[in-house]
Amino acid sequence: MKINEIKEINVKFRLITGTRVGGSNDIIEIGGNDSPVVRNPLTKELYIPGSSLKGKMRMLMEWLKDKIDVKGETHNCDDTECPICRVFGRGAENSKKAKSGPTRISIKDAFLTEDSKKSLDELKNRTGLDTEWKYENTINRLTSEANPRNSERIPAGIEFEFKMTYKVLDMEDGGKKDKELFEEVVLKGLKGLEIEGIGGGVSRGNGQIEFTEILVDGVDYLEKVKNIKL
To answer: What burial letters (b/e) apply to 44-73, b meaning 16+ CB within 10 Å?
Structure first.
């Protein structure tokens, strides 16, 4: 077993609708935001954790590959050929039995592009905030009593960029299986993000995104991913 190659995938995407990936609300001021977005604690800059992107891709591919169990827990097995576990990883005990090598994919945190940093700085200078607050209500069906809540969102139009790596291992097949899984799992997982959205509240309009750049080892894959049918 050896690594044949490590693919480097660079991705940029634009938010089509306001997006929230939740941060800590340990400290809440009276009248403050009870559902903040995640920020770098040192710089206070907005970012999207790679774990959020990876988790959403994995969940979507589990559904597409019929790997959802009755308890609804994250799929985790010792089948050497399992496309989900091979690409996204598995628990230590199952990894010992499967002997399929390390997790193939690694997804880094997504950071603001330089243009979007400037846009948010300008927004903060104008309004005092670099985000928006979305207000929602649930209404009691019998009494019409309102239960209002707010959540913080990153505004539509903001662009992020992140990097992924993908290892192709020679498992006495010249790396053939891992190359197939890159097409069948990684690229389809990316397409799933664009169709489904990211973060919380996607069923209520949050988190819709559009890829603006996808480079695999410097080669343009944007149209290829956009043309994938799930």
So the answer is: eebbbbbebbbebbbbbbbebeebeeeeee
**181: helix, coil or strand?**
helix
The alpha carbon of 54 is separated from its chain's Cα centroid by a whole number of angstroms, namely 5
Does the pTM exceed 0.85?
yes
Distances (CA, A) of 43 to 46, 47, 55, 145, 229: 9, 11, 25, 41, 39
Q: Kind and range of the H or E element at 21?
A: none
Which run of H or E residues covers position 167? strand 159-170
Dump pLDDT digits (tens) for 35-86. 689 999 999 999 999 999 999 999 999 999 999 988 999 999 999 999 999 9
DSSP states of 44-109: --BEE-HHHHHHHHHHHHHHHTT---TT-PPP----TT-HHHHHH---HHHHHHH---S-SEEEPP
Of 153, 145, 142, residue with least CA distance to 204: 153
CA distance 6 to 102: 12
**CA 189 – CA 128 distance, rounded (Å):** 37
For residue 214, give both structure tokens: 């996808």
